[in-house]
Amino acid sequence: MNKNSNIGIDLGGTNVRGGLVTERGLSHILNQRIHGSGSVEEVLQGLFGFTDQLISNSVASIGIGVPGLVDAETGLVFDVVNIPSWKEVPLQRLMEDRYGIPVAINNDANCFALGEFYFGKGKGCNSMLGLTIGTGLGSGIIINQKLYAGRHCGAGEFGMIEYLDKYYEYYASGQFFQNVHGVDGETVFQQAEAGDANAIRMYEELGAHLGNAIKTILYALDVDLIVLGGSVRYAWRHFHKTMWERIETFAYQRALRDLRIEVSELGNSGILGAAALYHDLH
Questions:
Q1: Are residues 153 and 250 in contact, defined by beta-carbon separation less than 8 angstroms?
Q2: Of 132, 164, 179, 213, which has the fewest Cβ atoms less than 10 A away?
Q3: Angle between helices 197-220 and 185-193 (to 10 degrees)
Q4: What end-to-end distance do the CA atoms of the chain give, in Å?
Q5: pLDDT digits over 41-55, tens only?
Q6: Domain 125-263: CATH architecture, name and number where available
């Protein structure tokens, strides 16, 4: 049988999502709860049971995005966020032993970037940054049309760079509303959408911090495109003006003129990117 599909899996602490990906895109999407607080073996059995529903003779490879560090050479997964028992798990070996096909594993923010590069706003570009703005501030880097993940798939952790009295993630992600104003981000979003001036001002404030973060990133990476993902992107219209006001103070204006910043329109970038991991490596 012709192996014309790949499995992409987005593993979280409460849910695992995945599907079959072909050149035409994503099909047969599954979403299942996972016992993230369980033992190493319990979480593995949940992942196996999930993958069993997708596997077939037409599958060429399996790609998995995880919220944690990964040894890119050995497939060891370290300190997975919201899965406390997963301190050091040889996930690639375990999956390959079970399914007998190549398995690739990477950080979930890197999978988002790959998904955008192959299937979304990044198609056709040479270099880009996928920036996920949700409960954290993560990123994936594409250079010369290849993912640059670093030895432990931790390249691009710009959210951890020191900023003001904390670090960028504290001010330039969904954490901002609780950290600075003591309010729930979802509530602020609903209020801003309804036209509440105070809620909109909070987004404008967040936009300025995000603009400063992007400006710092640009001093390290001279990319063609930045694609914004994560839940905060849905409030783009409330923060993009102040974000750009800060970015426009970037010292190298010629480079800035060629920069595009787009908002992701894909609903499953992480799954698509996970499925593309093996292809990206070869």
A1: no
A2: 164
A3: 110
A4: 22
A5: 999 999 999 999 999
A6: 2-Layer Sandwich (3.30)
